[in-house]
Amino acid sequence: MTDTAPSRLRGDSLREMVLETALRLFSERGYFNTSVHDIRRAAGVSTGAIYHHFAGKEALAKALYDALLSRMETAVDTACAGQQGCLAQGRAIIARLFELTVEQPRTMQFVLLAQHREFLPQEPPICSSQPFQRMRKVVEDGMSTGEVRSMEPWVAATALFGGALRMMNLQLDQALDRPLISYLDEVVDCAWRAIRA
Amino acid sequence: MTDTAPSRLRGDSLREMVLETALRLFSERGYFNTSVHDIRRAAGVSTGAIYHHFAGKEALAKALYDALLSRMETAVDTACAGQQGCLAQGRAIIARLFELTVEQPRTMQFVLLAQHREFLPQEPPICSSQPFQRMRKVVEDGMSTGEVRSMEPWVAATALFGGALRMMNLQLDQALDRPLISYLDEVVDCAWRAIRA
DNA sequence: GCCAACCGAACGAACGTTCGGTATCTTTTT
DNA sequence: AAAAAGATACCGAACGTTCGTTCGGTTGGC
Question: I want to staple A32 with a disulfide (CB 3.0 to 4.6 A). Which of A20, A85, B32, B40 is the partner?
Answer without folding.
Answer: B32
